[in-house]
Design a protein that fits this description.
Strand content: under 5%
Number of helices: 10
Shape: globular
Distance between the termini: 30 Å
Number of strands: 0
Radius of gyration: 18 Å
């Protein structure tokens, strides 16, 4: 993928298309979790727009995927900051327009409940968790994307897992099989 990024930076449209196809799913998933699910398409598009503007200066000091996910992370951070500003101005219940109790009340699937738990992680922990546990990035790649040491990534992931287990233990609305799955995945 790095070779495609370099070729795309030199004006190769075919390499650009290959690069986008190869990375689009991971970029969208990261944007969905760090930004918001509803805005993931727009955030993905903004990520590629920013990346295309700077492809000619891409020096391949890291892999193209790591470089692109770093851009996506910044796009999502900008989006979250913008949503918080809008929230403060409009006095909504939360950045999502719902408070946590409203989000968890009702009949949700396991995916929706788990998604809600991940969405409520502290932003740095959420980024580290999503990159490594959901997108499959290595700890070193996640550290590069988050611009912090690998040890910090490890501790953020450990704390994110603890937060998720604690949230499941506190929230009695999740079913018992879901609790077991979360605990068993955190033991590994």
């Amino acid at each position: 993928m790095t070779a495609w990024a370099i070729a795309a930076g030199n004006g190769d449209d075919h390499a650009m298309a290959l690069f986008v196809r190869a990375t689009q799913t991971d970029v969208w998933r990261l944007c969905s979790y760090l930004g918001s699910h509803g805005a993931a398409d727009d955030l993905t598009q903004e990520t590629y727009l920013r990346a295309f503007r700077s492809l000619s200066s891409f020096a391949a000091r890291s892999s193209a995927t790591t470089w692109l996910l770093s851009i996506a992370r910044r796009v999502c951070a900008d989006h979250v900051r913008s949503r918080r500003r809008t929230w403060r101005l409009n006095h909504h219940d939360s950045a999502n327009g719902l408070d946590r109790a409203d989000t968890l009340s009702g009949d949700f699937t396991t995916y929706a409940a788990l998604r809600d738990l991940v969405d409520h992680l502290e932003p740095d922990r959420k980024a580290a968790f999503v990159l490594t546990q959901m997108l499959g990035a290595s700890y070193a790649e996640a550290a590069e994307v988050c611009r912090c040491p690998v040890g910090t990534i490890r501790s953020r992931i450990a704390r994110a897992r603890e937060d998720l287990v604690a949230a499941v233990d506190v929230d009695t609305r999740l079913d018992i099989p879901t609790r077991r799955r979360i605990r068993s995945s955190n033991s590994a």
